[in-house]
Amino acid sequence: MKRFSLWLCVSLFLAPIAALWAFYQEKRITKFGNPLDERTQEWAGATGIFHAEDIRFIRESALHFPSPQWLKQPLEKRGLCLSQAAGMCLRYGIFIHEEADLTDRLIRHELAHTLQYQRHGSIYRFMQQYLFECLFFGYHHAPMELEAEEIAHCKPRPA
Ligand SMILES: [Zn+2]
Does pTM top 0.85 for this prediction? Predict the structure, then answer.
């Protein structure tokens, strides 16, 4: 637990920057992206996501986070590497790497994060928690990541 305070401070420092960036990316992707197919929209609705019809995804070669290396480094060291991500969820805007297979598992994993944004109430509060978990537990052990994987694999109850 010795690094708890350190990572809490770093995540509190990074969260407003990350939230502003995510907000801008969400606006951009929802403007230029594609809607989910009907089956995925139904899955999202049944999983508890509000207004799944407003979600857009975009396929691009990279998602740039305009920050100096000293800001990226602690996250990359803990397994969160933006330049290598197959997908990233910016609430209602979802980035999918152009070379990644657009599988149900990948899109549902990202949509599970949309659900987490919804639960946190704002992009900023999501980022605080998410960054802290990635820094403290490491990306692969972050509870929000583990939960997103779990949700991606579950079949919602039929309505
Ligand atoms: Zn994830």
Answer: yes
Q: How many CB atoms lie within 10 A of CB 110?
A: 23
Angle, vertex CA 81, rays to CA 131 and CA 13, nearest 5: 30
Model confidence pLDDT, tens digit, residues 36-64: 999 999 999 999 999 999 999 999 998 88
What tokens appear for 37 in the block? 């197919």
Question: 69 C-alpha to center of ligand 1: Å?
Answer: 22
Q: What is the distance in angstroms between the CA of the first residue and the CA of the last residue of the chain?
A: 43
44 C-alpha to center of ligand 1: Å? 16
Cα–ligand 1 centroid distance for 109 (angstroms):
6
